[in-house]
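New here. Your pick:
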Amino acid sequence: MMHAVDLRVSKRLLWVGGAAYPLQNIARVFTFVLRPRRKEAIALFCKRVVLAISVATGLTVVIWLSTSIASIGRPGDGGGGGLVTFVWMVTLAVVAYFVTELTPVLAARPHFVLAVETSGPSTAMVTSSDPNHLLRLVSQISHAIDHPEAEFTVRVEGISASPHIYHFGDNINMYGGSGNVGTAHS
């Protein structure tokens, strides 16, 4: 969800809408493309559907076997058809729910964003239809960090993005998972 916000540097504070970030606490200012988690969402959807169908199939077999054993010697007895229908109707409802969870992720579009990370856990993100505008803002904020007298105000788009829909931060592939200290050797 996007909404217009003011990004402002004033009196050694960076304001993003109503949130204030002391410039001395800013650890990193950068731009990146915020992409939807489509691959993960599709994989989760497929796992859930397979699980739901497996459970429904297992319940169907159990119902048929139990009604078949119970009806031995009683011709014309039902076969659990109503219960089997109920199991599959519930399964279809569950799959429909999974589709409603998948749809927003598939419909989400990537956003070019400017992110401001603090030395704590806080991160602010804004977006613009012009990526060059965000790149200029990185320079302006970096300049303001080094120059206490710097002040400016610009209008940007704020973005509220769910971590269930979008990837946040850097993607790091790590091999040999013991003793990693964040250094690279050539």
Summary: Strands lie at 2-10, 13-16, 19-22, 26-34, 111-118, 123-127, 152-159. Residues 38-70 form the longest helix (33 residues). The mean pLDDT is 82.
